[in-house]
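Researcher: Here's the sequence for the chain we discussed earlier.
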Amino acid sequence: MDENQIISNTIDFVKETLKGAEGGHDWFHIERVFNNAKLIAETEKANFFVVALGALLHDIADAKFHPDASGGDETIGPKIASEFLLKQNVDSAVIEHVVKIIENISFKTSLSQNQNKFTSIELEIIQDADRLDAIGAIGIARCFNYGGFKNREIYNPEIKPNLNMTKEQYKKSKAPTINHFYEKLLLLKDKMNTKTGQKLAQKRHIFMEKYLDQFYKEWNGEK
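Model: Thanks. This is the structure I predict for it:
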């Protein structure tokens, strides 16, 4: 089976698997990340097959939707991806690479104290692509959609953002949605790996800052 056919099969698999998923982590999120990754990959020397599979499968079973005592089971996504790719007769080295990407792509992983983190240009591309979808206009929409999904407060002036969370604290946080801007979204611009990612993030970051300015004016009844 050629690579294009495997990518096509992966798209069909992800669409079917994520039917009915929360709106910020559904097929359309995957599609946007896939498109972002393709755009970034144009200026990087990377294995496009790995980039495509990693982008398409990176949220096949997001840990936050599979709660456990730790705040989310991070083993399910890699397992589902690995089993699917094995059925597609994908080379074992590619499968291992894709699994490593899924295990290391999330923002919360960057909060870990583990000094032996996996890295590759393919991971960096997909990570940038995923982070771009977490900021800007769509990022704001996704943020509030998830907050509503979890029935969280929009904003509570008495609950301040925690800017020094550990990975474990981040996974279990139930803070108001506005806090998430300060605890994650506004930090992503400076965490971009690639020049293309950095350039695209700048505009989206400014949009979020303007949004927050307007939010507080409306909240406080200002003109």
